[in-house]
Design brief:
The structure holds three protein chains of three kinds. By secondary structure, chain A is α+β, with helices and mostly antiparallel strands. Chain A is built from three helices and six strands. In chain A, strands 5-1-6 form a three-stranded antiparallel sheet. In chain A, strands 2-3-4 form a three-stranded antiparallel sheet. In chain C, strands 1, 2, 3, 4, 5, 6, 7 and 8 form an eight-stranded antiparallel sheet that branches. In chain C, strand 7 and strand 8 form a beta hairpin. The chains are: A alpha+beta, B alpha+beta, C alpha+beta.
Amino acid sequence: MSETYIKRHRDTAARMLGDETIIMSVKDSRVFTLNPTASLIWEAADGVTALREIVARDLVAEFEIDTEAAYRDALELVGQLAQEGILVVTDHPMPAEQS
Amino acid sequence: MSRVSENGTYATAVAIGGLPIGISSADPEFITMLEGRYAGFLGADGDVAIRLKVDIAPPSGGRGEEELAVSRAGTRWLMNRGDFCADWDPVSKQGWVRQSAYPYAIDSVMRIVHSLVLAERGGFLLHAASAIRGGRAFIFSGVSGAGKTTISRLAPSDVTLLTDEISYVREMADGYQAFGTPFAGELGRAGKNLAAPIAALYFLAKGSTDVARPLKGSSAARRLLRNILFFADDRALVEKLFRSACDFVSHLPVYELTFRPGAEVWDLIR
Amino acid sequence: MERAESLDRAGCDIAAESLNRGHRLLIRVTGSSMVPAIWPGDTIEIIPAGEAPTSAGQVALYVRDGRLFAHRIVGVAEAAHVITRGDALAACDPPAARAEILGYVSVVVRDGRRIPMADGAPSRRARMLSFAIRNSNIARRLILGLRARRGGAYRTVNRCPA
């Protein structure tokens, strides 16, 4: 099974305010807010850490929940963020020079 | 305030937000009209940060695109609307405007130029009323009908109104300041040419009680972004405005202010 | 400086009666909620409500709290109400009753030029850049999933601000 990698799109500006993240897509100035859990995933979206590892490290360890269920939910979340054009989702690592 | 230069043009300066803009024209009546329009906000021509030369031309008679377009060409900003066109270079600080004697054209040019300068410097124009009380500024933002004009009308005598329509927020070395502007809203009068450090931002809502509820970061930032006035489709500046809005709500208290249409609401504003 | 016309309640009554009698009305705009379609200083020509159907895209003139507003109809709440919004604003106004609509903006007069009022929402480029806000409801499923598995409780993690 291939891994999923996620990276914050370079055409975004983001800021953590309290425990939420506010993100702007600079292409069209749409603004999104991520709740605390989604914020953890966003912060970890460095392009080189597999989503499975992010979930295990940042969600399962913190919340003591079922790994597979959390991974399915995370996949759905990142898919929607990708549809909105603010997250890049691929099956291979994306080192820093790519986006 | 106006003077005649050697080449026969007439000049004056309008200073809003601590930014004096020198305006010159070969038409003395236009300059006289401006000085009447911006009385209270006139500055010394020698200190201007920006110079705009205004060519008065007959109205264009319907030619040209009516939609406002503000775009960059190299370092210059180009502004076009059906009733004016303008070209301003922030590097040389010089620019020109071509319009008829219609006063609202230069009004719009001034708003646009100020919004561009503010965005670069960490500030913004805001769809909001603002007022000074006890040496501090309070900002009241909200959609039309939310109460900007109402709360301005209800202000007691110890409150000085800066504007009932468009607030001018600048980031200074030691925080944020609100400045008065001559851009009148429904109250029909210019604000006072004063400034004060901002104490709080209120988003207005009408209700049956007077209560101020603190808004947390992301909610405050979203609401602030909704009310920023900006006219250029420029990604770099839009991103700056986003960061400025986030910085602003991180540094200052933001509330949702529900109020009845009575002066008692001002008891909460101190 | 020229004083903008500020219509109080009596002025609203006069405007309403004038339009109800079938006259057209000219009003000088002071606010900036309809930029870029209508700018402060523009004069708007209003046709009586009966001369045009109520439909999304029209800029409707209505009275609220003793003041006149000219905002664009963006939707219909139910048969008797419409939803309006200033072009420059991301948030909608409270619903307005159709019966409150006095007329529609037909022409914007600017610098002696008559500009037909465009129906329909302005293009993305034409809109003043008030930010289009969209809440990320999509994050809820993830957090709801976590809460269900832990019986409704979850810990937040303190993060340092970016």
